[in-house]
Amino acid sequence: MARFGVIGAGAIGSTIACRLAAAGEEVVLFARGPRRAAVERDGLRVRIGDTVQAARPAVAESGAAIACDTLFLAVKADALPALLHAIVAARHAGTSIVPLCNGLPWWYRQADGAPGGAIEAVDPGGRLAAAIDPASVVGAVLFLRAALDADGMVESQGGERMVIGAVAGGDDALPGIATALEGAGIACPVAPSIRQVLWSKIALNLATNPLSAVSRATLAQMCDDDRLLGIVRAILAETLALAALDGQAPRESVDDLVAITRRAGPFLTSMAQDAIAGRPLELAAIAQAVLDLAGDHVHPMPVARAVAAMAAWLHPPRAAAA
């Protein structure tokens, strides 16, 4: 049986680990601190409405040398460089590495098995790009709306879906990963061009996350208020134009992406949740990496830049605020 590893025990990692373990897959959840202790004591629980799924995967300290066949990275993009040692410890020569991060990923410029330029905003100095063979990376675009409650329960909105695809030609593992996720109740289509699918999520994240940190509006409120909706539509248009310049235009239009946002309902984005809780915002991956790419293409994105700047000013890093 293949062993699945999940680094990160927040809402995303806990959901993936719980679903797979409940479906009978061998799962190791790598966590640390109080969250690790809580999962060891109580197991994992994911609730959708009145239905609760529970599972008890194996739990290990992040950095433990337990080799996994598929390794999901369910942490924020800016945490990955510091977790490189944990990634290395949990892999073997044939491990498929599946990052589940928002924004522009470190592997975006890597193709055909040859390292490309680093995405400096999310991979300072190119450490991840240098250490992880792009042929071992499975690109993933995750559509999952969930949050951890005070008791450690994951509150999910359902409709869990993960689109996967090869980053640099290594596609042999894709069918097995897709089959396991589908068997666990997570829809998992395989995309011929994962970068095109990625741009739909990048556009949605950039259009809604920084704005939610500024306004504290839910996704439904952004669509229902003409003032906020105008900002969302402007950022979507700017981002889709950038994707086209980069040769990766997604199939969805601005109207399509607005419709997706509207269907999400009264849900606070992860960045809004972080802003309310006083946690650091994931602006490097969601905003800065995209804006840096826009600079490379000499593509102005004035609305996206303005909203990201407001979010950064309102919620500075704690060290800078002290």
From TrEMBL:
InterPro entries: 6-PGluconate_DH-like_C_sf, 6PGD_dom2, ApbA, KPA_reductase, KPR-Related, KPR_N, NAD(P)-bd_dom_sf. Its EC number is 1.1.1.169. PROSITE patterns: PROKAR_LIPOPROTEIN. Pathway: Cofactor biosynthesis; (R)-pantothenate biosynthesis; (R)-pantoate from 3-methyl-2-oxobutanoate: step 2/2. Pfam families: ApbA, ApbA_C. One of its GO terms (biological process) is pantothenate biosynthetic process. GO terms for molecular function: 2-dehydropantoate 2-reductase activity. Residues 5-168 form the Ketopantoate reductase N-terminal domain. The keyword GTP-binding does not apply. Coiled coil: none annotated. Residues 194-311 form the Ketopantoate reductase C-terminal domain. It is an enzyme of class 1 (oxidoreductase). It catalyses: (R)-pantoate + NADP(+) = 2-dehydropantoate + NADPH + H(+). GO terms for cellular component: cytoplasm. Keywords: NADP, Oxidoreductase, Pantothenate biosynthesis. Belongs to the ketopantoate reductase family. Catalyzes the NADPH-dependent reduction of ketopantoate into pantoic acid. This is 2-dehydropantoate 2-reductase. The lineage of its organism: Bacteria, Pseudomonadati, Pseudomonadota, Alphaproteobacteria, Sphingomonadales.
